[in-house]
Amino acid sequence: MTPGVIGAAPPPLPGDPARAVLEQHAEALLEHTAAQTFPLADEVMRLDPAHYTSPERFAREKARIFQRVPLVLAASCEVPGPGDFKTLEVAGIPILLVRDRHGAVHALLNSCTHRGVAVASGCGAAARFTCPYHGWTFAQDGALLGVASATDFGAVDKAALAMKRFPVTERAGLVWAILDPASPHDPADLLGGIDSLISGFGLAGWTHVSSRTLHGPNWKLAFDAHLEFYHVPVLHRETFGPDRSNRAFYFSQGPHQRVIAPQSRPGAVSRDDLYALGRVPTAGEPADPLLMGEWILFPGVSINTFYPGGHRGVLLSIVVPGAEVGTSTTTQTFLAETPPDADTRKAMEDLGGFLAHVVGDEDLPTSAFQQHVFGTGLVDEVRFGRNEGGLQHFHRWLDRLIEAEQDELPALLASPFA
Ligand code: FES
Ligand SMILES: [Fe+2]
User: Fold this and answer.
1) Which of 133, 149, 164 to mutate to test the pocket of ligand 1 (most atoms within 8 A of CB)?
2) Which ligand lies nearest the alpha carbon of 360?
3) In this structure, are 54 and 93 located in the same domain?
């Protein structure tokens, strides 16, 4: 069991083993609340700030994390229908995500096989993609359909000139890909069971409300702020207020985690409030209380639940490195459980704007200063407290997966629920 983490990776149980784990989490939360106990990590952990600034370290993270483990690139409902596409960039790699007319999602290197130009930008729907440079055309699965002025151009092997395809899978209503076309793994085999734990959200049938992208410093500095609530009543005193608890319960599932506040959300009545329910929901009751809290999908994704106007929505935050060590993007995507009416959509868009303010104007400028001062070389170490077990877990798993060989990944990231 990882220090400071309760409920870590229990063994599979008969029946519905993922639900059984969620019930164990809920029981542990209720027991700790009743006893007013609070698990802490064994010791304070220290980290060399060069982890955030070193180009060599960053190159290893790109090659051994971001090009080897499955990454959440989108919610399935961002590309719900045939031809729907989205473009994004992860660690300098441009990606075109597109659903074909048979319903399958493809994750392609967004680069024309003539001379490299991006064949799509932004998001939208397209029957095919035409490169804006010389006009080569590509199918929704990346196949090369047409070479402009083919006779003039000369002989090409069209079958060999499809856009590069990354291994991709859809699980739990999310699109996951491994950004290595030659990866020996199916991303579905490396999810560590987190897809089973969050499947109860049923995200596959949700509705995309809004997305916005924020720019920040090193991806880990941007993401560290998702992994503890220690800073919440201090840094966010003007937005979330000074009365929030600065404590968090942590649960882990392989490298993935849950971070849960020890109190109900002030002033909000929500269906997922386990503390208000005071017991584990039975099989016939709504499962929302089993899913409460912030879900952390390794390496850089968080899912937070909200109930604006009483309607369930989640903020899917995807933090990825930029092309350089000191840059990242945080994409905040708001999803609604049911198609929102105008009032609900307005409430969700307002909440999305508020959360962009919290992260964009409070968290990320703070992280940017950390990046700045670490760059001076004058800071010897940073520390993660016994109350910041989630950060300790995250940074230890990063090192563990960087050190692991490719053929060790399936064992490290196997699902206990398969
Ligand atoms: S680079 Fe795409 S057609 Fe020339
Ligand atoms: Fe924050």
Assistant:
1) 133
2) 2
3) no
CA separation for the pair 351, 346 (Å, rounded) = 9
Separation between Cα atoms, residue 94 and residue 113, nearest integer Å: 14
Residues in contact with ligand 1 by the CB-under-6-Å rule are 112, 114-117, 131, 133-136
**Closest listed residue to residue 75, CA positions, set 86, 83, 89:** 86
Residue-wise pLDDT tens digits, 162-205: 999 999 999 999 999 999 999 999 999 999 999 999 999 999 99
Q: Tell which of 184, 206, 227 closes a domain.
A: 184
In angstroms, the CA 237 to CA 260 distance is 19
Give me the count of residues in the chain. Answer: 418
pLDDT (tens digit, 9 = 90+) per residue, 48-97? Answer: 999 999 999 999 999 999 999 999 999 999 999 999 999 999 999 999 99
- State the maximum Cα–Cα separation within the chain, in Å, rounded to a whole number: 79
Task: List the one residue out of 29, 28, 8, 7 whose CA is nearest residue 261.
Answer: 29
The domain tally of the chain equals 2
Q: Model confidence over 326-347: pLDDT tens digits?
A: 999 999 999 999 999 999 999 9
Last residue of a domain, one of 121, 156, 184: 184
Question: What is the number of the ligand 1 atom nearest to the C-alpha of 112?
Answer: 2
Query: And the tokens for 3?
Result: 């220090």
- Report yes or no: 69 and 177 within 8 Å, Cβ to Cβ: no
Angstrom distances, CA of residue 274 to CA of 4, 265, 414: 21, 11, 29
Q: Which atom of ligand 1 is found nearest the CA of 115?
A: 1
